[in-house]
Every structure is written in C-alpha cells, then in structure tokens.
What we know:
Order of helices and strands: HHHHEEEH
Strand content: 5-15%
Mean pLDDT: 92
Distance between the termini: 12 Å
Number of helices: 5
Structural class: alpha+beta
Strand order of the largest sheet: 2-1-3
Low-confidence stretches: none
Amino acid sequence: MSCDGAYLWGPANFSGRPPGRLVGEGVVVGLVTAGLIAGASVTGVSTGFPATGTAVGVVAALASAGYLFTTNAGRALVGAVALFGGFLAWWAPGHAAEAVLAARGVSRTVVVTEVHVHRHEGRDHVENSCSVRLPDGTPVRAEAWRTCGADARPGRHLGMVFDPEDAVPPTDRVLPATAVEGFAGPAAASLALAALCCVAVIRSQP
C-alpha cells in the first residue's frame, strides 16, 4: 500500500487472515466504545439527564478516537470513529426516550391552554403546537405537536404519554410498540460503530 493509503486507512502489514491479537483487541475496543456511548445515552435519558449522557458519549467517542490515533490506525478511520461516535451520542437519546415511554409510559388526557402557529419561511407550510395542562390545572412541560391540528382550540382535550418517573418529557408522538423496537436503531448503529473500531484496530498493524 502507498504511504498515503497507509496514512489514511492504516498500514495493515500482514498477509492472509489478520492476527488474532488484533482481532481480539479490535472487538474489545469496539464493544467498549459502543457500549459506553449507548449506555450513557440510555442512562442519561432514563434518569432525567439526557444532556449529561450525550456529553459522556461524546467524550467516550473522542477518547476511543484518541486511543486509535496512538495505535497508528488510519487517520480516515480515526476521524470516522470520532464523527460516528459523536453522532450516535447525539442521536441515540431521542430513540432512548421513545423506548422508555414505550416501556413504562402512561396515557393521560391533557387540556389545550394555548395554540401556537409556526410559519416556516420559504415554504408554504404552517404547523401548530399546543401548550397544555392536566385536568387538575398542572402545566405540562412539553407541548403537543402531532395532535395539535388546524382545528385545535383552547379547552380541547388531547392525549399524551407520560413517564411515571418524570424522567422523560411527555409526548403525543407515535411511539414504538415495544422498548425493543425503540432500541433497534441505536443498537444497529452501535454495532456498526463497534465494527468500525474493530477494522481500525486491525488495520493499525505496523
């Protein structure tokens, strides 16, 4: 391989099957990286601190990329691990929140208190969101969007799904049928990240 190719993708100086030591190290690095990012996202969401979970996930992604950099891994693969890991840390919490609500959410009736009209510049599109409260008068910290149609008016009753532990904001979005379905996307992305880390380690053979 040319010097430029080795710099970008790793030298991979072995013939035939990759050494078992590198495969084992790659699997460990990949699983630890993906596990930390996904675990931080799920823990942050389920405990009510999604931003903290995202921050921990980003740090884990950068730490993994830094480790790969020191092992002579290809710079393109190191950058891909950092970017993909950071994306996963940002993207997974939304799906984790839906999975949490699918697992333990409770449907409740809310009352519209105010309708907000959102006009998107450059597009012939108008979207409504509704501020809502519980029937006992308690304000709800999240707005209803999907069920807040053009005919929404103050006093109208809508349905939202609430987390009994109040860690995840309520929503009126269509949720996955089960928590497993909600976690399917992040799980697949985590496996892809683990595989990417494994390839980067294997190709780092000096």
